[in-house]
Write a structure and sequence with these properties.
With about 250 residues, the protein is of the alpha+beta class. The chain has seven helices and five strands, in the order E-E-H-H-E-E-E-H-H-H-H-H. A five-stranded antiparallel β-sheet has the order 2-1-5-4-3, sandwiched between helices. The N and C termini lie far apart (about 135 Å).
Amino acid sequence: MASDARHIKFLALCCSNKVLASHTHWNKEAAENYDQTLRQVFSSAGWASIQSQKKSKLELKSGSNVYLLELDIEGRVYAAVVTAAYPTRHIFSASGASGAGSSSKLMRDFREHVQTTLARESLSSPEGGLQRTLSRFLESLAVKYDDLEAIDKVVKVQAQLAGVQTTMVRNLTLADERQSLLDRQLDKSRQLDASSRAIFSRTQTLRRRACLARYRSCCWMMCIALLVAAVVAATVVGLNYSKYHWWG
């Protein structure tokens, strides 16, 4: 899956200190600044020294941007502006690393396309003369090399590992949430069990008290019955005793 990050900001083909074609892939409002910076480089005294020394590659840092320039033997300049975080190994080819067996490089693809299709026109074209011809190619080139996961196995593996790590973190979070839910449910179950035990114990206590109350009530009733029986017996005995003495 392509990354949403953008690192390729600007691409341009230059020759004889002129910008023949350019494409701003990101931060389009800064396109004039990119052109201006390139023209400042071409008009500087150091640029003439670089051309005389036949240096083929140049890397310039300007704030958060990195200007990468490659010169061919006929004087064409292939320029790219990228973020400081972009790995430049995808821009330049290593010495002797050419052919189908080596990995893709932005400058090599750029150079081969121009030298194959616009070899003469690129040497004699005026300022902006190849803009319409190269605009679509420059856009596709920027899109291709902006997708680091597609061209860089290391970045692809890192992205996959990040995805796996995100999935693992999410699964661990879900597991932790489930464990917390289970712990809360277990606590509630323990509280309910304790409440039920307390209710049962209270019920048993009330039952014992009720039985004791019934027993005491029965005892009092028996005592009252015995007392009544004793009074009745005493009354009968007293009456019989009085009658016996009266008749005698």
